[in-house]
Prior knowledge:
Radius of gyration of chain A: 13 Å
Order of helices and strands of chain B: EEEEEEEEEEE
Mean pLDDT of chain A: 94
Largest sheet of chain B: 6 strands, mixed
Distance between the termini of chain B: 38 Å
Strand content of chain A: over 45%
Oligomer: heterodimer
Structural class of chain B: mainly beta
Number of helices of chain A: 0
Number of strands of chain A: 11
Amino acid sequence: NAGVTQTPKFRILKIGQSMTLQCAQDMNHNYMYWYRQDPGMGLKLIYYSVGAGITDKGEVPNGYNVSRSTTEDFPLRLELAAPSQTSVYFCASSFRGGGYTFGSGTRLTVV
Amino acid sequence: GESVGLHLPTLSVQEGDNSIINCAYSNSASDYFIWYKQESGKGPQFIIDIRSNMDKRQGQRVTVLLNKTVKHLSLQIAATQPGDSAVYFCAENIDQAGTALIFGKGTTLSVSS
Lengths: 111, 113
């Protein structure tokens, strides 16, 4: 099992550009999450999903969108990148909200 | 604002000492708590969890204590090793259904030989 796979690992975006951060898990977990981590800070919940076709906002959803068309994939979309979105993004999955498995992160810089 | 926080941003210990990392939470309805370890450049790793119907849980070299009266959570690491150097986060349920976790800011543990 690969666990939780995030791509890309690094990305530099210009202000106003858009991109999709990919996340896939092969553990048949029904719950998936996106967090962002700013330097020296804890993780902030952006969006989460308790199953295919179901998504909910977390603490900091503004500027992001998600979709969950399959159990395995949970992409995060940035439509108009802003410098405030410079952060490290972590995707995670769990079985019914138990202990999470995290991906290795995507480091995004918006310039 | 955050409902989960840690008392100290940094903790420095000598190899072989016991480490205690503390966390305070404000949501008295929270019923599930987890400790995570994050090494530099990596995603958080699950260490140990505890439900609100327990006040202590032990793992390998780690113990989590939960005091619901004062809404306090602690992680004890026995015989701390250099490999334990990392940032430690506590996290609690966002809701009673346990659908997502809210994380605190983290404590950086530095272990010197």
